[in-house]
Design goal:
It is a single chain. This protein has one domain (about 10-185): Vaccinia Virus protein VP39 (Rossmann fold), CATH 3.40.50. It has helices spanning about 10-15, 35-45, 55-70, 85-90, 115-130, 145-160; strands at about 25-30, 50-55, 75-80, 95-100, 130-140, 165-170, 180-185. The protein is an alpha/beta fold and about 190 residues long. Helix content is about 35%, strand content about 25%. Helix 5 (about 115-130) runs parallel beside helix 6. It starts with 7 loop residues before the first helix and ends with a strand. The protein is globular, with a radius of gyration of 15 Å. The chain has 6 helices and 7 strands, in the order H-E-H-E-H-E-H-E-H-E-H-E-E. It has a 7-stranded mixed sheet with strand order 3-2-1-4-5-7-6, with helices on both faces. The protein binds S-adenosylmethionine. S-adenosylmethionine binds near residues 30, 35, 53 and 113.
């Protein structure tokens, strides 16, 4: 896997790593194959907790196996529920929330993230963040519905009060227009 500036997942992880505290709480809003959950579990450490959501058993099973092989399953609560219900399962404050949107690599494309649910989940994430906490999103625009999801996220992010949130967007300039976009939102006051 690429670990350079062309890897949107790597970039978003780098931006979130500053906000994840040992012993703290973080959220993976889209568990998928578990790579982002494992990343968060390593940083939160044995006293921390990661809540990891997915609507597919296939994804949660992959994530469980990855965590077990790394000896970190006990740091993570896997939740089979949509991330739009995040606040039913997680009480803040949380250090970080990661959204790696789209569909499960190697899985069914029908279980794709949806703009309206992503919006609700993002609003929840922003309420849950501690001061100085960060939400990071990797957004793919090349599949049906992807551009709508990107535009919806961008609209919310760009409209946030700059006294309350710092927001950045990263686009890769020398790749196809459909290359993934990264948005990072930091709650001010940390
Ligand atoms: C690109 S994958 C995530 C990749 C993952 N973070 C990793 O490290 O491998 C997107 C995931 O979002 C999940 N998903 C779709 N809608 C969802 C929802 N409403 N709530 C939570 N997960 C959802 C899909 O099932 C899929 O597994």
């Amino acid at each position: 896997m690429s670990r350079g500036l062309d890897s949107a997942v790597h970039l978003v992880q780098q931006f979130l790593s500053c906000s994840v505290q040992s012993g703290g709480t973080s959220v993976d809003a889209t568990a998928g194959r578990g790579n982002d959950t494992l990343f968060l579990a390593r940083l939160t450490g044995p006293e921390g907790r990661v809540f990891s959501f997915d609507i597919q058993e296939d994804a949660l099973q992959s994530t469980r196996l990855l965590l077990e092989s790394a000896g970190m399953a006990d740091r993570v609560t896997l939740i089979k529920a949509g991330h739009e219900n995040m606040e039913r399962y997680v009480s803040g404050p949380v250090d970080s929330v990661i959204f790696n949107l789209g569909y499960l690599p190697g899985g069914k494309h029908s279980f794709i993230t949806k703009p309206d649910l992503t919006m609700r989940a993002l609003q929840s994430a922003l309420r849950l963040l501690r001061a100085g906490g960060r939400a990071g999103l990797v957004i793919y625009t090349g599949h049906p519905g992807g551009m709508e999801e990107y535009e919806a996220v961008e609209k919310i992010a760009a409209g946030l009060d700059n006294a309350l949130f710092n927001v950045i967007k990263i686009v890769v300039l020398n790749r196809a227009a459909t290359a993934p976009v990264v948005i990072v939102i930091e709650k001010a006051g940390g």
